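debug: dumping io for the single-chain case to check the tokenizer round-trip. Nothing else runs in this session.
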Amino acid sequence: MKLPKILKRPTLPSNLPSTAKWLSGEGAGSWFVIKKNTQNYTITRYSPNGNFECENNFPPPPNLDLSKEYNVTYPSHCSIITVVQNEKKIRLNSLPK
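debug: decoded output
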């Protein structure tokens, strides 16, 4: 089976904040929203049209600054999120439930 080409970034759904990051893949893609709380980060994944897919809490890595430009890359799913900032990959592992 031949997969479709890389899914292009769709228009940001109106229910997502402007800080949402698009992660494209072959025939798929997701929006990621990272919110800093008092003690951790809550990261929520949404479908291309803005439907909730999953959410988890992650410890804040000392080398990620959400006020500066960053992108989400692979691997990223509900338990692991990988971010690229300043040409460095930063991996976040979800907190135990």
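debug: round-trip ok. The mean pLDDT is 92.
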